[in-house]
Known about the structure:
Blueprint (H helix, E strand, L loop, with lengths): L1 E6 L4 E4 L2 E4 L5 E3 L10 E4 L15 E13 L4 E13 L1 H14 L10 E7 L5 E13 L4 E7 L6 E8 L10 E3 L3 E3 L4
Parallel strand pairs: 8-9, 9-10
Antiparallel strand pairs: 1-6, 2-3, 4-7, 5-7, 6-7, 10-11, 12-13
Amino acid sequence: MIAYKGFNKKLQATMGKGTFDFVPGKTYEEKECKTANNGFHCAEDPMCAFGYYSGMSDRYFIVEAAGDLDEDSARRISCTKLTLVKEISRIQLATLACRYMEKYPDRQQDKSIQKNEGSVCKEGDFVIVRGKNPRAAGVKGSYLFLVKEKKNSMEIETIDVLRVDGTLIKEDIYYMVGGKKCKRKS
């Protein structure tokens, strides 16, 4: 199964009472897995990776979870076999998170996804805003992911990604899908 995993900048992840060093492309194996207890952890929802590793220097991978699998209600997966398939950026992980929402619109969304309105204040960072008329603002070099739901359902109508470049999309201005400027909701 394809899943996602976050690491610190040294490509280490917490395992048990310590850290475990990983190498891209290598397959790791454990004898057993129980979520939040043992095995290698990852998640089907890309946003879950940010719950453990959200720093600007943290690293993210598409992984293959295999062998025995155990999943809990928090959507974490523990597996006995894990391979780091491909490293991706924070912005790529956010893009994959939006696609995940589009595929599973009724699933409970991660708490870091803003409802209706949001902003980002770090260059190179992002905000994901979901709603009927999502709006977002950011600083130069940040990304605004606007996930617009259909009028009478939670299905996703469109996903728009805006990069605050300071020219076309300006800093500290709220934008809606299509790059349309809007006033901040009171």
